[in-house]
Amino acid sequence: MQCSYDTRGNSVPTILLLMQETLYMQSGLKAEGIFRINPENSQEEHVRDQLNRGIVPDNIDVHILAGLIKAWFRELPSGVLDGLSPEQVLQCNTEEESVELVKQLKPTESALLNWAIDLMADVVEQEESNKMNARNIAMVFAPNMTQMSDPLTALMHAVQVMNLLKTLIMKTLREREEAEAGRDSLMSSRSSNGRTDEEYESQQEMDTGCESTGPASDNDDEQPHYSTSSEDRDEVGSLSEIEECFFRQLDKNENAKNGFRKQLEGILCREQVSPGGGSTSSEDYRVPLSDRTASSCVSMDEGEDSRATNARLISAAIEDVDMLDNVVESPVPPEQLCVPN
């Protein structure tokens, strides 16, 4: 018979792979009672004839396909498990013993058994839909795996074969779960390592960015540029306003100084014009002087020598004006001013 390899590396007849593929494509594994419900004989024979001619009919009943797969094993010249004696199967009670027992089969029978066990495990994985557990699927396959002439012996042997098949099915399902868990763990580990590598690369980029934007060395020609914050700009604006107010005050002081000088010049001119021994007005003249004369005032009483008194008064006033000139020429630095809130 023409053989081909399935997805798990088993070399089996191509007709089996063709029926298996069609069964899976039509969602036969989810059909309730798959491999347990027997189709009508007339329909099964019709599909069998077409398959023997190499024709795969469209929309085949999945139960017909399942029945033909069992018929293929049943109609073999010798059963797949006929190489094992009933006594050997009867003495096989554990999973380890079952595994060691099937290793005694020939390569062809071993490949067919492995393919059938994988098929039955696929059915059990859909137990929620098809209501077929490991015991049920093993029960319907067991009579097709051996051939005995004595019906009573065949029935008793089929029970032992059913237990053997069930053990092998459960072992296959457990190995699939372990393999799936291992793949999930590997993917999770790779994902975790991938995130760690990304975080490490991100940290490296941040460190490189910090080094590139760090302070310039002594050998660098370019000086770093600093940006002015909004607070700095507000402070500069406040200082500018203070300087402007200060200079306006200086202008007012300059005007007051010029007016004061003019008053002194007027007094001096009147003194030069007035008679030598005459007295001036009986009013008291009080003129503020500098800090050394600020606490006292210059008074001119009647009977004093007005010329001498006025001369002293003018001299002191001129000294005050000169001090005011020095203050105007040497203004207080803006940074020493009290900045208003």
Automatic annotation (TrEMBL):
Pfam families, per the entry: RhoGAP (PF00620)
Cross-referenced InterPro entries: Rho_GTPase_activation_prot (IPR008936), RhoGAP_dom (IPR000198), RopGAP1-5 (IPR044785)
Every Rho-GAP domain range: 1-177
The UniProt record lists the keyword Nucleus: no
Entry keyword annotation includes DNA damage: no
Biological processes, Gene Ontology terms: signal transduction
PROSITE patterns with a match to the protein in the record: RHOGAP
GO MF entries: GTPase activator activity
Record keywords, A-Z: GTPase activation
Biased segments, Polar residues type: 205-216
Disordered as annotated region, ranges: 176-238, 272-305
CDD domains, per the entry: RhoGAP
Protein name (Swiss-Prot/TrEMBL): Rho GTPase-activating 2-like
Source organism per UniProt: Olea europaea subsp. europaea
Origin organism lineage: Eukaryota, Viridiplantae, Streptophyta, Embryophyta, Tracheophyta
